[in-house]
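Review form for a predicted model. The reviewer records the input and the model, then writes brief findings.
Reviewer: anonymous (R2)
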Amino acid sequence: MAKNNSRLRRTIVRILYEGGEMTRSQVSSELHRLGLFREVPTESSLAALISKNAQVVSVGHAKIELSNGLTVRNMVFDVDRGLIQEEEDIELTMPYSSMNTALKEQAVRCPSCKQMRYMPDMDICRVCERRGV
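Model under review:
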């Protein structure tokens, strides 16, 4: 299951990068549309996966009206735009647990933050570079 969650995390970050701000139900719909997974997780499982990803931040709430007339507030998520400014930054800021096997083999420990990162020809990782650490 860990490999599937890693694939899901990578796919969710790409969806949010390309599609912009979305609620977890919109992310779920997009995952269904892409058809990359045999089973798409429930919305509560998706919320747990999204909230544990350091590349994704909550940017507010959206009011959703349910079929029975009740109104609920759902969190709206987006990639951290201060951290991920171009598509290449997705791999460069990815946590080790979300990397695929090829990236894990090339990952090295950042001397500044001590995290395992994919950093080709870089002195410090992109996260430290952007956050000024």
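Findings: The two ends are 34 Å apart (CA to CA).
Further findings: Residues 1-81 form a domain with the Arc Repressor Mutant, subunit A fold (CATH 1.10.10.10).
Recommendation: see findings above.
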